[in-house]
Amino acid sequence: MSHNLESAANPEALRRVVIEPVTRVEGHGKVTILLDEQNRVHQVRLHIVEFRGFEKFIQGRPYWEVPVLVQRLCGICPVSHHLAAAKAVDMLVGARTLTPPAEKLRRLLHFGQMLQSHALHFFHLASPDLLFGFDSEVERRNIIGVIASHPELALQGVKLRKYGQEVIRHITGKRVHGTAALPGGMNKALKASERDELRGGIAQVVAWSQAAVKLSRDFFTSSEYSAEFGTFPSNHLGLVGAGGDLELYDGGLRALDPGGATIFDHVDYTHYNRYIREEVKSWSYMKFPFIIGKGAEEGWYRVGPLARLNICDRVSTPLAEAERQAFRAAAGGGLQHATLAYHWARMIEMLHAAEAIEQLLEDPDLLGTDLVTRGARALEGVGVVEAPRGTLFHHYKINENDVVEKANLIVSTTNNNQAMNEAVRQVASRYLDGRKLTEGLLNHIEVAIRAYDPCLSCATHALGRMPLEVSLLAVDGEPLDRLVRSAEGQLSRPTL
Amino acid sequence: MSPDSNRTFFLDGQEIPFREGQSVFDAAMSAGVFIPHLCHNPDYEPHSSCRLCTVIVNGRPFASCTQPAVAGQMVQSDTAELRAMRRTLTQMLFVEGNHYCPSCEKSGSCKLQATAYHLGLQDNHYPQFFPRREMDASHADIILDRDRCILCGLCVRISRDVDRKNVFAMTGRGIHTVIVVDSASGLLKDSRVTVEDEAVQHCPVGAILVKGKAFEVPIGERIYDKEPIAVASVRRFQAREALTHG
């Protein structure tokens, strides 16, 4: 734990290094580091500097708009918001259990989303660090560099993402921000021609996903960084199926402590607020959730691919299950706590998504036309899914006129807020402390954040070189040095 | 259609036949020439309030939906000046209301949105007004979302002339004009409106909607997904003409 680096005792006497924006993540954030004259790290914070306000401005809107409205939270994982909201809205119309075709369509949609999002992150955002090194030449540490040096790999990443987007398009009508889920079901059956088109490409997608798992596994098992880079004990939380399977669309909540002991299991997610609470800190727009029973200090947890593979007992598809076993074995029988293991876990999930799509495309229910069901109306609904970045909670209360009165969203990245802060503090302590700062060293901080694939919201999409300004101030605040890197990658040292 | 062969006028140089009593708008649409419009629904009496269908007749501007066709007159519609005027009017409608197409259930079947596409709107141009307007969701089956209202008056006219209920009216002046409901509480639930009323069925935007239908029509199958408004409107108009005039 590194809480001692959250707030320095004497910030005014320290110099401040800012990484803004954090690049190759979805959304807009910054990191501030406070150092003393010997470059010792005294404070590290990941700040989320955007304010979105969705919880407020969906108030007053009719509930059936919500799944379509809230997906605009994100351009990468809109399907996750669409489905989490849809599940909550299902409860409002008394349809927590859908017809088999509707549920399977939603699952297919969700797997398509998982596939494209994980491919985007691994190939486009993370691979430059993993392939070239965290402090490699900045000129090629980006997707363009990957295309130049590993064209086949880059193309696989593009095509994997494209396949996932095509799954989404066939179901929602658009690759991004379509419509699909209705209260209690879906609005369109899958046509046989659409299913057959998807069948045509899935074998290759599975094969590429297997190769991606191998690449991420080889990186993790051979990298000097894996053991120490952002490795710290934490609780882990996510959904699991009734049999303890990896479950992405609908299951019960399970939380394990750092030693792997169960904190709670198979909790009905509609009761999430009996188990999870959010803390607010003055320096970030992102809240800090924690498990109530363990308190804010000890109860924070990790979600997402690493957590999901830690908490589940098995994966339902054979290739991904074999990889999960290798993944767990590498942790020596306990939970895997390494931040860099997120990449490996993410690729195992991508393989699972590919296999699950392959299975679903053979399911005769998928073409069914019985798509909507209804039951007794309710005034409150909760929907939870495992989004690519972790557990996603949507909670709505409506009035008797069908209008939303209250909304609470705990998005995946919010669940990882404390963990990302822990990761950057640990990395700053381990790799920056007492050393002269370089761009490569600062990138270590970003590598730790990127491993979580945070979606700091979709207001900006920073891809490629990182505009960066580092100022060196004396203890009395007098500027001593300033280094600026432009968005084009040009370094300059402006006259003070 | 069998117009008198002596009854023709010229629209952008094209000879357009018309029947006695037909408007410029109706004659143009019958001949397959689209004139952008918002407040006019050819199934009901014209209103000429939105002015989007303005054409130049013998050098003077008229609303084509109420302007009678006259033999030999020279009419201009598809000119740079009129296209710019229509774009401006449409932009003003967007900024004077709260039109959030991305989450609107009318999206894809909305006449305002489709007209904006037809006119090539790239942005709203003018500063957004963000007016505060009340939504009335009190009725069990119907919702009145004033944010989306473009004050075309169609619901007012249909409720008065067809449904014979006078449920809707406009109140206020200028930019403060809003739709109001005829009931003691001012709410739909206390009015005589029912889901079967024609006034409820024909709102060109998403201001009056039947509950429980949102997003039922998938993307790709909505009205203007299949064909642009210029094609859809003309085709619908000509089908109506064929039905009523043979």
Structure description:
The complex is a heterodimer of chains A (496) and B (246). Chain A has 496 residues and is α+β, with helices and mostly antiparallel strands. Chain A has two domains: 11-52 and 417-492, no CATH class; 54-414, Cytochrome-c3 Hydrogenase, chain B (Orthogonal Bundle). In chain A, 39% of the residues lie in helices and 18% in strands. Chain A has 14 helices and 17 strands. Chain A starts with 14 loop residues before the first strand and ends with a strand. Chain B is built from seven helices and ten strands. In chain B, the strands form three sheets. In chain B, strands 2-1-5-3-4 form a five-stranded mixed sheet, with helices on one face. A three-stranded antiparallel sheet of chain B has the order 6-7-10, with no helix packed on it. Chain B is of the alpha+beta class and 246 residues long. In chain B, helix 2 runs antiparallel to helix 3. Chain B folds into two domains: 4-85 and 229-245, Ubiquitin-like (UB roll), CATH 3.10.20.740; 93-226, 2-Layer Sandwich (Alpha-Beta Plaits). Chains A and B meet through loops of A and loops of B.
Unreliable sequence segments of chain B: none
Estimated structural class of chain A: alpha+beta
**CATH architecture level-2 label of the largest domain in chain A:** Orthogonal Bundle
Helical percentage of chain B: 25-40%
Total strand segments of chain A: 17
Taking strands numbered 1, 2, ... along the chain, how are they ordered across the largest sheet of chain B? 2-1-5-3-4
Low-confidence stretches of chain A: 458-467
What structural category characterises the helix and strand content of chain B? alpha+beta
Please indicate the count of domains of chain B: 2
Main sheet specs of chain A: 4 strands, mixed
Order the strands across the largest sheet of chain A as they lie in space. Answer: 8-7-6-11
Number of helices of chain A: 14
Largest interface, by Cβ-Cβ below 8 angstroms: which chains and how many residues each?
A-B, 21 and 18 residues
Q: Order of SSEs of chain B, N→C?
A: EEHEEEHHEEHEEHEHH
Q: Per CATH, what is the topology of the largest domain in chain B?
A: Alpha-Beta Plaits
How large a portion of the residues of chain B is in β-strands, by DSSP E?
5-15%
